[in-house]
Amino acid sequence: MDKGGLGLLATLYQYISVSRDYVAQVWKPHLRFRCSSEDSITLLLQYLQQSFILSYIHAIRVVIMSEFTTFTEGEFYEGHFDSRAYVKSFYSCSSGHADEKNYLTFVLRCLSRVFSAGEHKGKRLIDVGSGPSIHSVLSACEHYDEIVLSDFANNNRREIEKWLKNQEGSLDWKPILQYVCELEGKSLSDLEATLKQRVKKVLKCDVRLENPFYPHTLEPADCVITSLCLEAACKDIQTYCRALHGLTELLRPGGLLVMIGVLGESFYKVDEQLFSCLRLSRDGIEEALRGLGLSIQEFNILPAEDRENNSVSDFEAIFHLVARKPSE
Q: Beta-strand (E) ranges in the chain?
């Protein structure tokens, strides 16, 4: 980091250290004219202080990510992404990581609402960028005859295959399976058996390519799901839009695109290792999808809670969307 970056960090930390005093000195006299009690003044001061500090923390995170790292694309994941630590941190229970306040519950409920009734079904479903995880396809698996899971990182694909083959030491997905079963009134053993029977392939994918599965060419799918993948793989909005185009090319006419992602996130951490994330906005995503001719049927958002105490990411919101490719 150069001297300019260090100076900016020092300034930001100095602002944080004095912000409480500044708010108290500047705002407290004004609040006395508008509040009827000391308790009301105290609550308002705390709110203002937290707002100041949150702004500074966000600025520091942006500086750290821009100064210390280049964007962590797929190649970085091969050597630095700990699949087992990731699942332990973010998928060991149905609410997800404690710092992210029930984001996983939101995701699982959204996916259940889309798929559990059986309204969306077909021959083939492709999950693009599965990571080491199977949670994205749990609610959908009984409604599609063939499921393809995929990821760029070899270790992530190995962990999925170990679980599918019931190998010793495979990841424990029972807490997530159990939660989905309770939502949908299913048997855990039946859901697990159905998913393992329906998954036909676990393939390498690279969403930066025109064909993410090159050199393979997959038959068009009735549904494509992607979760927390594109914003982690794409270093800029141009690459992101090209990746979205690649996903739509995997769909048959009239096919369904289901996306889970994060808004306003610049980084996340797995076992203290930092990974970059492309900061996205709802407007930007909607514009990109409509530019590809997709009609957005749902766009659900869960705002982040208690962002200043989130030690593993800086996302502003989790989103879930459903879009449809036009029929020819």
A: 122-128, 144-151, 199-204, 221-227, 251-263, 267-270, 273-276, 295-303, 317-324
